[in-house]
Design a protein that fits this description.
261 residues; Rossmann fold; 34% helix; binds adenosine-5'-triphosphate; binds magnesium ion
Length: 261
């Protein structure tokens, strides 16, 4: 049996800001079409890892391979062109521009044939009908949930093979969180691989296939998402960190969860 090559492979990655190291040898894989959750307490390095993968933070050692090509320290625009999209924390939109303009700006530089561009608009409007209804509204007046949908939709205009999302539920009401995460599940069904950073740990582990637990810039364990739910490993990662979204009474650690020292 031949081993399948992952869509994204991060190997022994070291990265940080100026002289401050944050990631200290992180390895992680996302299979083609897979759904991977990345969890860990505040300051663990989750956002830094996504930034390093998308080229926004330089790595000092290690390797990042996407779709068979090394992308470590490649220009962010080149990484986007290859189909690796990052929806950053905090819904960065052109607030004074309309929904439609924001989507159009998402396509900036892509030079797509008209029919393909139209197909991409159709796709995001099918996934988020509310954006179709509000296409002329300024992004800045949308609700938080609609803004998050627009941020995701903007990334989808690039027809990603892998979408990385950094805490899409942040600041949203529970019903709206469900809408946003349901859309992420739908995207995955449509064949897009997902790397999800989420503070709603329980929700993330319900919808992902596998999960990685990050602590102090290191992966302290990974395994099937279902096995990690309620595990001691997860408790350890969140100890003293106010584990938002973690139910207090969950089954104990499964033996199939691998831990890395
Ligand atoms: N722009 C920056 N410049 C310097 N240090 C930073 C910067 N951004 C993050 N850090 C530091 O890097 C470490 C990891 O932060 P990061 O934002 O990656 O964590 P996180 O796991 O995403 O946390 P959170 O759950 O709070 O979003 C922290 O110590 C943080 O203070
Ligand atoms: Mg973060």
């Amino acid at each position: 049996m031949t081993a399948t090559v992952p869509l994204l492979a991060v190997r022994d990655l070291h990265a940080g800001y100026d002289r401050v190291g944050v990631l200290e040898g992180v390895s992680l894989e996302v299979p083609e079409g897979g759904f991977v959750a990345l969890v860990g307490s505040n300051g663990a390095g989750k956002s830094t890892l996504l930034r390093a993968i998308s080229g926004l933070v330089s790595s000092t050692a290690g390797q990042i391979v996407f779709a068979g090509q090394a992308i470590d320290n490649a220009a962010p625009a080149r990484i986007v062109e290859r189909g690796l999209l990052h929806v950053a924390e905090g819904r960065r939109l052109f607030r004074a521009q309309s929904v439609l303009d924001n989507l159009q700006l998402g396509l900036w530089g892509a030079r797509l044939p008209k029919a393909e561009a139209a197909a991409r608009f159709d796709r995001v409007f099918t996934l988020f009908p509310v954006l179709h209804e509000r296409q002329s509204a300024r992004a800045g007046i949308l609700s938080g949930g609609q803004q998050q949908m627009l941020a995701v939709a903007q990334a989808l205009m690039h027809a990603p093979r892998l979408l990385m999302l950094d805490e899409p539920s942040l600041g949203l009401a529970p019903a709206v969180i469900d809408q946003v995460l349901d859309a992420v599940v739908q995207l995955r069904r449509d064949g897009c691989a997902i790397l999800l950073v989420e503070q709603m740990v329980e929700r993330a582990l319900q919808i992902a296939d596998t999960a990685y637990v990050l602590q102090n810039g290191r992966v302290i364990g990974h395994g099937a998402a279902a096995d990690l739910r309620g595990s001691d490993l997860l408790r350890q990662a969140y100890l003293g960190a106010g584990a938002k979204g973690l139910a207090p009474t969950l089954p104990s650690t499964s033996t199939s969860t691998r831990t890395t020292a």
